[in-house]
Amino acid sequence: MEALGTTDLDFFNALLSQLGNAGSKGSEIDEQGINFMLSIIKGIKPRDQIEAMLAAQMAAVHNATMTFARRLSHVENIPQQDSAERAFNKLARTFTTQMEALKRYRTGGEQKVTVQHVTVGEGGQAIVGNVTQGRGVSTPDGAATQPLALTRTATAPMPIIESKMLSPMQASRTAKKK
Description:
Blueprint lengths: L8 H15 L7 H14 L4 H25 L4 H30 L29 E2 L5 E2 L22 H10 L1
Helix pairs in contact: 1-2, 1-3, 2-3, 3-4
């Protein structure tokens, strides 16, 4: 039960039954198939029942993907090849989507944005380096204020250069003179 991220016996029994149906070939229970699917779920380390259900689906999709990979390598005609290829591609994409869904669920949907290019216009100022923004601080009256800025840094401030901007033609002439 711990490996499935649950303490609920009803959930555990139902999921185990579903894994038995999905992991078996034919009407008899395939112990090796069920154990393999359980090992996949255990490897994902579900933290709750939602993650356990998604992990079980991922195990079932993986089994089906491998079944169609085998079928694709043993086709006898073009229609069989087309059918197996379509199913294999859909299942492989589904597995990737499930991995992304698990990641989003575990991270709470938080995203990290990295800015690769910044343009600062004339008279503007910029900070170069890693910048994080904390949450606002609540005051007793309920209003939110921004956190205080850093006032002490380990490096000297960047000097502000007061000069007019050169046009591309002027910059080219200046570079040629040097």
